[in-house]
């Protein structure tokens, strides 16, 4: 598995987890710790997408 394949897989997992957090937020709200974790997942997803796009632009 290449680094880019790993990043794509990681982003898929992050998207799934973010979707779950959004559903939970809409139903009952998030605690402070969950909210912080959610924001961190968003940052990681954006960073991963940025790295993948940078790799595409190089190729």
Features:
single chain; 2 helices; 59 residues; elongated; mainly alpha
Task: Describe what this molecule looks like in 3D.
This is Fur-regulated basic protein FbpA. The protein has 59 residues and is mainly α. The protein is 90% helix and 0% strand. The protein is built from 2 helices and no strands.
Distance between the termini: 18 Å
Number of helices: 2
Residue windows where pLDDT falls under 50 for at least 5 positions: none
Structural class from helices and strands?
mainly alpha
* Fraction of residues in β-strands: under 5%
Number of strands: 0
- Gross morphology is elongated
Percentage of residues in helical conformation: over 70%
Give me the strand/helix succession. HH
Overall pLDDT metric: 95
Sheet with most strands: none
How much is the radius of gyration in Å?
14 Å
Task: Briefly summarize what is shown.
This protein is mostly helical. The chain contains 2 helices and no strands.
SSE diagram, text form:
Elements: H1 3-28, H2 32-58
Helix pairs in contact: 1-2
